[in-house]
């Protein structure tokens, strides 16, 4: 089972590092398939990623800010989704242990207090990421969510320089400048329309920071779980479940939930569970999209998905937005696309420069 875990880990590491190379052997295997079948598989995987990602955003916004539910307990909603993820991981691990080898691929999961403690720093960042994400979504809505939480790329550049002393090219910095310009223009236009929530903006900035830190800490602690993303997901969410309890108690959310009038509603728990399932599924389809395309294509797909998500939100909630508001979204999306493209070209250049050296070393005549 370990080789499988390492392979899946490599997929996610490539996504975090921004590499645009495919998995070893993936291109050879794809080349043996007819073009139409290969294209159909890619289209299906990308469509699945879009569907799960967009549906999850709308579903979470409904749970967090729906007048029909009227539940002011964002930490409890996030906590429950972590519980669902833990149960799904354990359930799939159990099924994989009883089914024949190869029919269900999932690592065995056993509780290990030492591992739980080792990934605690990552879990703290993870809690901040998912909590601030949901709070941002609660206060600024789906339409402005792309702009409100667009600074992850900028924080990646800043943190890479401060912690890793990695410099960024001028073209990549210009892309970050476009993102920042779109961010400030979007804030200005939300203020003009009277729909600006500064607390939502603050949560969006904090969520962006946590997304960047989460990528760094994930790479750092992966060896603790033998490179298995699913084991990391299990322990991360288990830590989150434990840490959320005192937080909900201190903020009075447990009391709010106890007095919630729809606590016995199957409709409410159905949507809550569905939100947890989609939260679990997004990790799987992200890795799947990277596997069938490339990390670069995945980032481009994510940018296009964000554009579609914004348009759908404006149509669904029957909002009217100004031309400059749309321009701010286009600036953020084009800046993100440009940054992804530039980093992909830079990575290609590095690989081309190093490949002749590798060939020289492997040449028996040298």
From TrEMBL:
Keyword Ribosomal protein part of the UniProt annotation: no
Keywords carried by this UniProt record: Membrane, Transmembrane, Transmembrane helix
Transmembrane segments: 42-63, 75-103, 115-133, 139-163, 170-187, 199-217, 229-248, 268-288
Keyword Transmembrane helix appears in the UniProt entry: yes
Pfam families, sorted: TPT
Entry's Gene Ontology cellular component terms: membrane
Taxonomic classification: Eukaryota, Metazoa, Chordata, Craniata, Vertebrata
Membrane topology, as annotated: Multi-pass membrane protein
Domain of life according to the entry: Eukaryota
Gene: SLC35C1
Protein name per Swiss-Prot or TrEMBL: GDP-fucose transporter 1 isoform X2
Organism: Geotrypetes seraphini (Gaboon caecilian)
Cell compartment(s), UniProt: Membrane
